[in-house]
Write a structure and sequence with these properties.
The chain is mainly α. Among the domains are: 123 residues, Serine Threonine Protein Phosphatase 5, Tetratricopeptide repeat; 35 residues. The chain has 23 helices and no strands. It is elongated and about 105 Å long. The chain starts with a helix and ends with a helix.
Length: 462
């Protein structure tokens, strides 16, 4: 049944194709009817190719193609007529992309308006609700948009349209307004990674091409982050938006403006506390390190922010923090590290004692960082009393042999730096440990005396 329907539609298309081509032949002086409005039935009729019409008619043919491409299809409908219409629209989209890529002098104000209208009708749509109530971007597969065969070509067209040397920026500014940009940024919520990749490139191009919109784009992206960090709104495009911002931050002039410092303090640092940090941690680290390269004095502020949001229960997230901490300490001046040396090493000590061997190893490797080692040497009288008890407990109680070996190497490093200080701290720790052991024995004996024969305390009290 379906094959017979296809044959009838194809035969109708073939019958009209020769008539259409003859009608629009370049040798004829007739113009192309591009007024519309057009429907799905119009897509079943074959359209002439650009090279088959005269140059003066190509603009009208381009307008007709663009208006035909405004017809929207339901990709959940797999009927024969719908499939033929979808394929015809796809071919028209490809023809339009090829035309603006290979042809000169196609751009004018009317064409620009129709292009942006076609793009808006196709891509500015209500995104489907999350398919899962608890979507985990680190574990679950993304939901792919079934309309991608059309959307991909529209996005490719928009990208080539933006970067084309034939587009006039002054005319573009008449039709690309703040509403258009807000809709583009809103599409970053899409779960389809293919769509977000196109959006990332397009928004970056727009940012570079329109200086007057740069402040608005930054503020709109900031609002996305505020909703994500402070209101908990789910968002799939945080990594792509951070990747764009990484390039933008790289171009910031120094000294940094108050607006940019506020973005670091109110957005980038609080982003460390969110649940799915692993999905965008690499891009976040790049943005933060760009700020420190611009202004090394920001190093202590970033480190304090990280220590404030340090994870307590997630070992995987703590590993991300330790990796980022290593990169930041490489860029931070020793003077900035010295401001927070004691607090920093208290956290490093807690991580060294972690039962998760990878966390403990990574924290011990931090001490090989040149800036950390230099700071530890300069402030060893403050730092060694903080870190030595952890090292001693690791040697006695940690279950992992690699952690044992690394802990011993760190202790030996401090002994090479200042042996007498290590002996002094070690004796103080042994004394405190012995006092603690005696107190524990005394407490156990007290309860053994107070609760003879192992009777529960509730029974004795009653």
């Amino acid at each position: 049944m379906a094959s017979r329907v296809f044959k009838r539609i194809r035969s109708r298309i073939n019958r009209k194709e020769n008539a259409e081509i003859a009608k629009y032949d370049g040798s004829l002086k007739s113009t192309i009817d591009h007024q519309g409005p057009f429907s799905k039935e119009d897509l079943w009729v074959a359209q002439p190719r650009f090279r088959d019409v005269s140059p003066e008619n190509r603009t009208h043919l381009l307008l007709k193609h663009l208006r035909l491409c405004c017809v929207i299809f339901d990709f959940n409908d797999e009927s024969s007529k719908e499939n033929v219409g979808k394929e015809m629209k796809r071919q028209l989209l490809l023809a339009v992309v090829d035309h603006i890529t290979t042809t000169k002098n196609w751009f004018n104000e009317t064409v620009c308006k129709d292009i942006l209208d076609m793009i808006a009708i196709n891509i500015f749509r209500d995104l489907p609700p999350p398919s899962r109530s608890e979507y985990d971007p680190e574990e679950d597969d993304p939901v792919l948009d079934p309309a991608w065969p059309h959307l991909q070509i529209v996005y490719e067209f928009l990208l080539r349209f933006m970067v084309s040397t034939y587009t006039d920026t002054k005319i573009l500014k008449k039709f690309i307004d703040k509403r258009f940009l807000t809709c583009i940024i809103g599409l970053f919520k899409s779960e389809d990674t293919r769509e977000r990749d196109y959006l990332k490139t397009i928004l970056h191009r727009v940012y570079g091409k329109f200086m007057s919109f740069r402040s608005f784009i930054r503020q709109t992206v900031n609002n996305v982050f505020y909703n994500y960090v402070y209101d908990g709104h789910p968002h799939s495009g945080i990594s792509e938006l951070l990747e764009i911002l990484g390039s933008i931050i790289n171009g910031f002039a120094v000294p940094l403006k108050a607006e940019h410092r506020r973005f670091l303090r109110m957005v980038l640092i609080p982003l460390h506390k969110v649940k799915h940090l692993g999905t965008f941690h690499q891009q976040l680290t790049y943005c933060v390190t760009q700020f420190i390269e611009k202004d090394p004095k920001l190093g202590s502020e970033v480190l304090m922010g990280m220590l404030q949001f340090w994870p307590l229960q997630s070992s995987s997230k703590e590993l991300l923090f330790l990796n980022q901490l290593d990169e930041i300490l490489e860029l931070t001046d020793k003077g900035e590290i010295s401001k927070i040396a004691k607090i920093l090493f208290m956290q490093i000590a807690r991580s060294i004692e972690s039962p998760h061997f990878q966390v403990s190893e990574r924290a011990l490797f931090l001490l090989n960082n040149d800036n950390v080692a230099s700071c530890a040497n300069e402030h060893r009288h403050e730092i060694l009393p903080v870190i030595y008890p952890t090292l001693a407990r690791n040697l006695k109680h940690h279950w992992n042999p690699t952690v044992h070996s690394l802990t011993f190497n760190v202790i030996r490093m401090f002994m090479d730096l200042d042996g007498p200080l290590v002996d002094q701290v070690s004796k103080k720790y042994d004394k405190e440990y012995e006092q603690h052991r005696r107190e524990r024995v005394r407490r156990d004996k007290f309860w053994e005396t107070f609760c003879p024969d192992g009777e529960p305390i509730t029974k004795i009290i009653s």
